[in-house]
Every structure is written in structure tokens, then in C-alpha cells.
Amino acid sequence: MIALALLVALHTAPALPAQIETSNPSAVADTVATVPQRDAMDVIAKLLHKERVEPEITGTTSTGLSWAVLPTFSYNPVYGVALGAMVSGAGQRGSRNARFSNLAISGNYSTQGQLQAQVRGDVFSTSGNMLTKMDVRYLDTTRSTWGLGAATRDQEEFPMSFQLVRLYGTVYRRTSGPVFIGLGYHYDEFMNIEDDRAQKGELTPFTVYSGDGVDKTVASGFSLNVLGDTRDNLVNPASGYYLAASFRDYLKSVGSDNNWQEMWAEMRLYPHLPAASRNVLGFWLYSWLTFGKAPYLNLPSNGWDTYGRGARGYLQGRIRGPNQIYLETEYRRGLTADGLWGAVVFLNGTVTTNSETGIFSRADVAAGAGLRIKFNKHTNTNVTIDYGWGRDASHGLFLGMTEVF
């Protein structure tokens, strides 16, 4: 990662000219549109005096999707550097006006010995009236917990290890325009749970909540869902909106440890600021609520959102409780007219209910900034390098290959 950044920095494009910076927003957009776009592969090719090598190995099959093999990497303070690969398929299955389907099969292994494999996709029927969403994953990991409630300076860390098998699938049908409703099934099995400090005879948040001797939990149930999605690009949205809600009923009759419910509601917006520019002011809001006694590791927790990208500035799992509400805003701006370099600043806040009183805590706020390096100009994929600071000396570096939201 550092090597790539240094290599690109050696041959970066000039920043937007001063006269463009001070002109009106529409002039900026028009000027940038006329500049040939570059990415890291173009820089490497020029430095080595070679022809450009595409970062993806591509091909098209009878499924109607164009497939690509893409190397992946990420960094998170919890699991270290993770290296892997992704086989990704995307395309319009049907008419040219059809929504884009995508399917990704990925796996990675981290420097801290953690393994993850995943199949995730949004696949439309050829008519565009049906949508299948899936999230299947296996995770073998070591993750800590800090108990329930807001983050505080005096919280103790309780290391845990476990394996997770997740099977989520939802079938939607279009009702009107971009709006779909659907029925789903959700299964989470946390197995081989090892609570390090409990095994040494200590009382831990997990044993207080779950009881002694618990080494496996199962959540199995059905869901009712609504979805509206008009984003122009799933890896780097620059326009549109995403609205989703899911009510999930976990039942002992279908294998769950006990009966409980979960409600997830989410909104993402991407207005431009200034309005006629390419700069995006993104908003991400979600509420994650539980009813009844959810398994400890299924409770709402920062960094355990669908893509594991929320609450930069805090270690994953630092903030956990029966209910959470999360809000983030991020300003994304290009630094060079050729699209090679960009930057972001972000601010987020998480509020969590106290498990005993049911009252929401004060907000755990974090803020930070980051750089963007264009990895693939054809798919508008960026290398993301972010640093965030939270409350009580919490901070961290976060790397990835798609925008956070």
C-alpha cells in the first residue's frame, strides 16, 4: 500500500489550476470532463515505459455479466493488513435500461491470522422486476469486546475468538419505479466462542450477558424488507440515493436459540456541493434496534454494519448495545483534474442505549480525513486511506478499495 502511494506520488498530475478553482462550479465540471482521466496503472506504465496493464482480468459469459478478477487489500486496527482476491461480475441482464447486477466472490487472510470468505450480490432478473440479494460469509477471527454501552476511557478490553457462518438471502419484487419489497431468511451461527479472560476465571461482559459455558449461539429467522436504490455506482456513488428497511423475526421454531426481533433502517444520500460541481457531500444514517434478548455477538455494534465500514475512529466492537443510531457525513473532493488524487473529510456519531436503563447515551463522535488514489478509472474504484480520531484517545488508520458508503 505504501509503495503504491509513493509510486503514484512520484508522477502525480498537477492540481486544478487557480483560475478553475475560482470560477463557477459548472466551469469546473466542464473543464475536468475534458481532461483525460488517469489511475495508478497509467502512472506505473509511464514510470516503467510499458503499456498499461489493466488491474482486472476480465471476460463476459452467457450470464450477461462481465467478470473480473481483482486483487484486494484492506487495513483495520482490529485485524491488521488483509490481502486477498475478488471475482466480481457486473452487467445489465436484459435491456440497456436495466439496473446493473453485481455478484462478488472474495476471500482474504490477514497478518493477524484471520480468515474471511464471502459471496455477496444484487442480481436482477432479465425483466428487472425481481431482485435477489445475498450475503454468505465465513469468518474465523479474533475480536475484542469492551462491554455494553458508550465508549469510555476506563473501559477494559476482553479478547474473544470465534467462527461465524452467515447465510442471508432476500428476494424482492418491484412495486413502483426503483422501489422493491421482499421476503428474506437470515441465519447467523457464532461457534467455537472463546472468551479469553472468562477462561482464566474472570467475570466478563459476555458471561454476564450470556451465562457461563456458552460457546455457540444461533440466530435464525425471516424478514420483511423494502428497498429503494438509484445510486449510479456501487463502489463510488456520486449521485442517487439508497433507502432500505428490514424487520427480522428470529424464531426458536426455525433453529434460533430464542425468540427475538431486529429492525434495520438505512438512508444514504449523495448531493453535490457546490451543486454543479463533482464534489460530493455524502450522508449516511442508520438505526439498528433489537427487541427481546439477542445473542451478545448479534447486538448492534460499531463496525458490524453490512460492509463493516462504520464509525471510523473506533476499533470494531468498541461500542455495543441493544440499540444504535448512527450518522455520518463525508465531503469528497477531487484534488487533480485527471481524477488520480482526491481527498475526504468525515464526521460521524454513534448513540447507543444503556442495557439496564434503555436510555440512549451521549454520542460517541469521531472525525478524520483521508486521501484517495484512483486504482481503476474504468470502474471509478479508489484506494482509500483514512485516519480517524474518536473520544477518549481512540484513533486508527483504515485502508480499503471502495468508498465507505
- Roughly what percent helix? 10-25%
Overall number of domains: 1
Judged by helices, strands and strand pairing, the structural class is mainly beta
General shape: globular
Number of strands: 17
Number of separate helices: 6
Corresponding CATH architecture: Beta Barrel
How widely separated are the two ends? 21 Å
User: Runs with pLDDT <50, length 5+?
Assistant: 1-31
**CATH topology grouping:** Porin
Query: How much strand?
Result: over 45%
Multimeric organization: single chain
**Main sheet attributes: strand count, strand direction, barrel closure:** 17 strands, antiparallel
| CATH class identity | Mainly Beta
Give the structure's gist in a few sentences.
The chain is mainly β and 405 residues long. The protein has one domain: Porin, CATH 2.40.160. It is built from six helices and 17 strands.
What is the strand and helix layout of this fold?
Elements (H helix, E strand, L loop, with lengths): L1 H9 L7 H4 L3 H10 L5 H9 L8 E4 L5 E11 L3 E13 L7 E11 L4 E10 L5 E16 L12 E19 L2 E17 H4 L5 H6 L6 E13 L11 E10 L9 E10 L10 E12 L31 E12 L6 E12 L11 E13 L4 E9 L5 E6 L5
